[in-house]
């Protein structure tokens, strides 16, 4: 009976299916409402006679609908994370099965060796550890919990560092397994010599650098956010594309080159381990240096990205047929600048959080829908009315973005007549 209650079109939010269905329905209703308002439909007669009143009414309606979408999205994101731990466990054990198949196929003719057994046991130990850790953190994405950043996105630097850490742990476990199975003292001495720094200096250097990069990038991003030099908004849920894109979803050169080069180096190290399972993979210094250059480029990109939003000018918005005049109470002003919409804040619930401070009055930026999106606000232009509570004379204008970052103050003159 309980199972049938949550089947079909369940939107109760008590099960993953209900959360997903409820989010999809909320999004569909919001899009339908936005397109109707963009076409001039759905306006009540009480506000249809006034352009400013109808604009405010439409903005309020869309804001309420967007808030429902955001809440449904949050619930769906939490339910998705709760399901993710099982998926990561399946992927981990599928990798173990794949390793077993590859070892079985390559053992045909060559025979099964102690190194193959040690590799399989090492893979099983790593898989058990990842599965256990994933279960303990099942509410935060399972085994992926360590690579999910504070902004609820997959962190490129953490993912690269975790990949190298897991590989090095696997390589050491292989050597431990072979050492435990070795009966001859000369073989044991050779295996211990395989752990010497001269053999694994390259891979140890790369491991130290990528782990240091993961810590450094977290520190850099945190300080830049606190100093308002970088705008960050929380994502609804992590996506695999986060490893290769910026917060707005566009491909990032620094992230792509870092992931690609580290993946190639990791594949080379894995092949070296398969060929020489009696020592740490001897990563050539040329390849290690390539990884270091890629890491330096990635960190430089983190320092270069972002920037504070800025107001460049404020003018009186003039409609067709309107006379040129100074700014008065009730007039619309057009604020021109850059960085008003933070990366990843293009959704309606984030846009509705933008505020313009005009003197002592806080004005919420109205949402103006057009087909397929919004005409106001945009990243470079905002249009807001001057409230009647603003005193005539010089007053300051300041924009507060959805990320909570404030722009510079811009002085305008409000005319008394």
From TrEMBL:
<keyword id="KW-1133">Transmembrane helix</keyword>
<feature type="transmembrane region" description="Helical">
    <location>
        <begin position="159"/>
        <end position="181"/>
    </location>
</feature>
<feature type="transmembrane region" description="Helical">
    <location>
        <begin position="283"/>
        <end position="301"/>
    </location>
</feature>
<dbReference type="GO" id="GO:0005975">
    <property type="term" value="P:carbohydrate metabolic process"/>
</dbReference>
<dbReference type="InterPro" id="IPR013783">
    <property type="entry name" value="Ig-like_fold"/>
</dbReference>
<keyword id="KW-0812">Transmembrane</keyword>
<protein>
    <submittedName>
        <fullName>Membrane protein</fullName>
    </submittedName>
</protein>
<feature type="transmembrane region" description="Helical">
    <location>
        <begin position="90"/>
        <end position="112"/>
    </location>
</feature>
<feature type="transmembrane region" description="Helical">
    <location>
        <begin position="253"/>
        <end position="271"/>
    </location>
</feature>
<feature type="transmembrane region" description="Helical">
    <location>
        <begin position="118"/>
        <end position="138"/>
    </location>
</feature>
<feature type="transmembrane region" description="Helical">
    <location>
        <begin position="201"/>
        <end position="221"/>
    </location>
</feature>
<keyword id="KW-0472">Membrane</keyword>
């Amino acid at each position: 009976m309980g199972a049938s209650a949550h089947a079909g079109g369940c939107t109760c939010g008590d099960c993953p299916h209900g959360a997903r269905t409820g989010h999809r329905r909320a999004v569909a209703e919001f899009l339908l409402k936005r397109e109707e308002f963009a076409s001039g439909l759905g306006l009540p007669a009480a506000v249809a006679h006034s352009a400013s009143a109808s604009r405010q009414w439409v903005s309020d309606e869309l804001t309420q609908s967007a808030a429902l979408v955001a809440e449904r999205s949050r619930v769906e994101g939490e339910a998705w994370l709760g399901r993710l731990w099982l998926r990561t466990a399946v992927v981990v054990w599928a990798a173990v099965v794949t390793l077993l198949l590859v070892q079985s196929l390559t053992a045909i003719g060559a025979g099964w060796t102690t190194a193959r057994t040690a590799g399989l046991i090492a893979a099983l130990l790593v898989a058990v550890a990842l599965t256990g850790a994933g279960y303990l953190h099942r509410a935060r994405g399972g085994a992926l919990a360590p690579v999910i950043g504070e902004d609820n996105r997959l962190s490129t630097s953490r993912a690269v560092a975790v990949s190298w850490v897991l590989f090095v742990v696997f390589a050491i476990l292989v050597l431990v397994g072979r050492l435990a199975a070795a009966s001859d003292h000369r073989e044991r001495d050779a295996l211990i010599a395989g752990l010497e720094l001269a053999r694994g200096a390259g891979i140890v250097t790369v491991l130290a650098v990528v782990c240091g990069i993961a810590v450094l990038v977290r520190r850099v991003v945190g300080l830049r956010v606190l100093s308002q030099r970088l705008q960050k908004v929380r994502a609804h849920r992590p996506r695999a594309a986060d490893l290769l894109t910026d917060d707005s979803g566009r491909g990032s050169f620094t992230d792509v080159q870092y992931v690609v080069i580290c993946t190639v180096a990791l594949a080379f190290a894995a092949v070296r381990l398969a060929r020489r399972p009696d020592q740490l993979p001897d990563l050539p210094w040329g390849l290690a240096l390539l990884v270091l250059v890629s890491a330096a480029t990635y960190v430089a990109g983190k320092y270069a990205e972002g920037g504070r939003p800025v107001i460049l000018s404020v003018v009186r918005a003039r409609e067709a047929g309107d006379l040129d005049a100074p700014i008065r109470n009730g007039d619309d002003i057009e604020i021109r600048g850059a960085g008003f919409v933070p990366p990843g804040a293009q959704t309606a619930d984030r846009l509705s959080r933008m505020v313009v401070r005009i003197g002592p009055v806080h004005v919420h930026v109205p949402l103006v829908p057009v087909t397929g999106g919004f005409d106001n606000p945009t990243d470079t232009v905002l249009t807001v009315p001057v409230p009647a509570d603003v005193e005539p004379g010089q007053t300051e204008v300041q924009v507060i973005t959805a990320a909570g970052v404030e722009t510079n103050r811009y002085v305008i003159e409000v005319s008394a007549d």
